[in-house]
Amino acid sequence: xxxxxxxxxxxxxxxxxxxxxxxxxxxxxxxxxxxxxxxxxxxxxxxxxxxxxxxxxxxxxxxxxxxxxxxxxxxxxxxxxxxxxxxxxxxxxxxxxxxxxxxxxxxxxxxxxxxxxxxxxxxxxxxxxxxxxxxxxxxxxxxxxxxxxxxxxxxxxxxxxxxxxxxxxxxxxxxxxxxxxxxxxxxxxxx
Length: 191
Description:
Oligomer: single chain
Largest sheet: 5 strands, parallel
Radius of gyration: 18 Å
Helix content: 25-40%
CATH topology of the largest domain: Aspartate Aminotransferase, domain 2
């Protein structure tokens, strides 16, 4: 059995990485650069996005926690799909926000049901695409429609953690759809 929820490689360290580590004088016993300058440069180059808009963390959990601490206060509302990554609701609850669940249709995220849940106090909508734990996904046009339907003051957070498994032509990652836009946050797990 392979545990996908932790985004750990079941195959261990790549032989290419091992080869590089053997041939270079890397100080892997030291703490890494806390600003992750080299990593952010590589990510910026690979995904063709603004270096200054990249935040690296110890897994998406840490980034979700940061988002909730930065953008939410007690009494604010967060919308999450009925079946979604638990950390969205956990960190939102910790800062005192109310978690509002949008019903899914046959285990698929429903843009219509998310929009119905939006209230004056809604500050963030979290979407895992493809969804964790159901594996279903929003098509590109559905994700674009969701952004159009949301008030511009609402932060749309698209978690692209498992997008490398998506091969359907109707799918596109949040990063590819919205990378030039404001008020969007995307997660990409790199391992």
